[in-house]
Design brief:
Layout lengths: L10 E5 L6 E5 L7 H9 L7 E5 L5 H6 L6 E6 L2 H13 L6 E5 L5 H5 L4 E6 L15 H7 L6 H11 E11 L4 H10 L2 E10 L8 E8 L6 E2 L3 E2 L9 H8 L1 H10 L3
Parallel strand pairs: 3-4, 3-6, 4-5, 6-7, 8-10, 8-11
Antiparallel strand pairs: 1-2, 7-9, 8-9
Protein name: tRNA1(Val) (Adenine(37)-N6)-methyltransferase
GO molecular function: methyltransferase activity
Keywords: Methyltransferase, Transferase
């Protein structure tokens, strides 16, 4: 840990279970979940350079990306409370030289930072269009789940403006919107290059899709093997164990299950 952590009422400090990283969370706002962890592992990142995380929430993806790259990482979050939590998490981990958190609207961020300056952009956007689903939920949850501050088109357009030619944009979303995602990416000259479906179990339909596109690239899409979350014993599969807990934990789990 970098500094002493001051928590607001209702907040807690959670262990990210890797590289001694911790993150501030609260039940009153949207906490990160598996989709963010998988995106942070899926995105192809350079050893150095500039990375941008949009819809950053409490900053979990930038924190996790620091374990894979020495790049400078910017994060954009529109909700003031979440942006503040992200900044304090960055400081708590002593990563102020690596991560900078901006409170603002991703639709205007290019006006502040410029066009095409990032090597990689990651984004874990709201999955549901505005006006769908539960309209009476907590405002923080509603903004995290629904496209209240930008449509899918707005979000992809922001990615396209901010990533350099040949740079990568990595997104996690719902498979039900895959056709719309690919159409929108191509509209903004982001060519899908890698895709992976995530299934709760081997018998289940996919409930997440990880997709990576390259700015101004030629068509050629690689479909990666599906990622299965749970095995027959309803425990994390070895790959999930490795993603969450590292090689040692995955090896120990494999021995216990007789693999």
């Amino acid at each position: 840990m970098g500094k002493d952590v001051v928590l607001a009422e209702g907040e807690r400090l959670d262990d990210l279970l890797t590289h001694q990283l911790h993150i501030i969370q609260s039940r009153e706002v949207f906490s990160f979940s598996m989709d963010a962890v998988l995106l942070a592992r899926f995105a192809a990142v350079p050893p150095r350079g500039r990375i941008l995380d949009l819809c950053s929430g409490n900053g979990v993806i930038p924190l996790l990306l620091t374990t894979r790259t020495k790049a400078v990482i910017d994060a954009v979050e529109i909700q003031p409370r979440l942006a503040d939590m992200a900044r304090r998490s960055v400081a708590a981990n002593g990563l102020e030289e690596r991560i900078k958190v901006y409170e603002g609207d991703l639709r205007d961020f290019h006006k502040q930072r410029g066009h095409g300056i990032y090597d990689v952009v990651t984004v874990n956007p709201p999955y549901m269009p505005a006006g769908t689903g539960d309209q009476n939920e907590n405002e923080h949850f509603a903004m995290a789940r629904h496209e209240r501050k930008g449509t899918l088109d707005d979000i992809v357009a922001a990615c396209a403006r901010l990533v350099r030619t040949g740079g990568r944009v990595a997104m996690v979303h719902r498979p039900a919107r895959l056709a719309e995602i690919m159409e929108t990416m191509r509209k903004w000259k982001l060519e899908p290059k890698r895709m992976r479906f995530v299934h709760p179990s081997a018998e289940s339909e996919a409930n997440m899709v990880l997709i990576e596109a390259v700015r101004d690239a030629k068509p050629e899409l690689r479909m990666l093997p599906p990622l299965i979350v749970y095995n027959e014993q309803r425990q994390y599969n070895e790959e999930l164990m490795r993603i969450y807990y590292g090689e040692q934990a995955a090896s120990a789990a494999a021995k216990e299950t007789g693999k």
